[in-house]
Amino acid sequence: MAARFCHSFPTAVGISTARLAPMLTAVECFQLGYTGHSFSPPRQRRWVSSPGLLSGSMLVSGRTSFCCGAVTMIGQSEFAGEVLGSDRPVLVEFVAEWCGPCRLITPVIEWASQEYSGRLKIVKIDHDANPQLIEEYKVYGLPTLILFKNGQEVPVSRREGAITKIKLKEYLESLLGSTTVA
């Protein structure tokens, strides 16, 4: 079962889950300066203790997780159904928890998931948890973006490295305007 892509950070000891409120949107993540997993403890405590700031957060195995949008994290078992069997184009982002550029472009990818919600599905695949997919699709750098349509990789759709919102929009518009497969 696919889970929504969530960011997480270690929680401070003794924090009550009852104090956690709604989840942050991608824009809120970006505006608050959240870029991934490297918080200082004081900021971390301030976020968690601010009522109304976090919504729908959940405490899972000592980590506070919050989702930022409609990007779904999938694995090897969901790949065929979610990507290859999709009736609309799917942008696959290969990421890793330890990858700085992956965390850096998260707000941009979340923006794209909202901007192109009717035309495009976006999923993330964890590099470390899915070595077979990494090998099969020859993912050598992170983050890697690949567009799939009709169960096949769209030629020249592969892009590696961080990307700005403007460049992502140009990239997606050019691919969605001419999504032919090899």
TrEMBL record:
- Stretches that traverse the bilayer: none
One cellular component term (GO) for this entry is:
cytoplasm
Record InterPro entries = Thioredoxin-like_sf (IPR036249), Thioredoxin_domain (IPR013766)
Q: Which GO terms describe its molecular function?
A: protein-disulfide reductase activity
Which superkingdom is the protein from? Eukaryota
Keywords linked to the UniProt accession: Disulfide bond, Electron transport, Redox-active center, Transit peptide, Transport
Domain (Thioredoxin): residue spans on this chain: 59-177
Q: Which PROSITE patterns match?
A: THIOREDOXIN_2
Does this UniProt record's set of keywords contain Metal-binding? no
Does the entry feature the keyword Ubl conjugation, yes or no?
A: no
User: Could you tell me what this protein is called?
Assistant: Thioredoxin domain-containing protein
